[in-house]
Design brief:
- By secondary structure, this protein is α/β, with parallel strands linked by helices.
- It is built from 6 helices and 5 strands.
- Strand 1, helix 1 and strand 2 form a beta-alpha-beta unit.
- The chain is globular, with a radius of gyration of 14 Å.
- The chain binds D-ribose.
Length: 147
């Protein structure tokens, strides 16, 4: 699985921690689109870079981080085909995969500690979409809203 990851200046440290978690998985390839320092950057630009790699098929899934994760998730969900889940707990991470087939995870670097963030990421990576008809119908209705 290939994962594209990106953050703004509000979550650079958590991005590095999340990359360490991703390295626990032998089959995960990581593409980090930045940012890499503390200089302020505008999170919609990072969200666009990550989501474009998911939509184009360059990556299977994306992970976005900013101070709260809110700006990143709002921006990502503007992009056709993206289902971005902002998660601060493990249960939501699991449900975002099983029910919503979330293809992007958003995390808040000023909200989450490294430990909880790691558990969220592990759950999100290892949970499959249920594929149940009712969930697929609802996801299709979400994407109908894009038209
Ligand atoms: C940047 O200061 C901050 O607004 C950003 O990281 C994020 O929290 C926005 O939602």
């Amino acid at each position: 699985m290939k994962i594209t990851i990106g953050s703004d200046h509000g979550a650079v440290a958590l991005k590095e921690e999340v990359k360490m978690i991703l390295k626990e998985f032998a089959d995960i390839e990581i593409h980090d689109v930045g940012t890499f320092g503390n200089d302020p950057v505008d999170y919609p630009e990072i969200a666009e870079k990550v989501c474009n790699e998911v939509i184009s098929g360059i990556s299977d899934r994306g992970i976005l981080l900013c101070g709260t994760g809110i700006g990143m998730s709002i921006a990502a969900n503007k992009i056709k085909g993206i289902r971005c889940a902002l998660c601060s707990d493990v249960y939501s991470a699991k449900m975002s995969r099983e029910h919503n087939d979330a293809n992007v995870l958003a995390l808040g670097g000023r909200v989450l500690g490294f430990g909880p963030a790691g558990e969220i990421v592990r759950m999100w990576l290892t949970t499959d979409y249920s594929g149940e008809v009712r969930h697929t119908r609802r996801i299709n209705k979400i994407h109908s809203l894009e038209k």
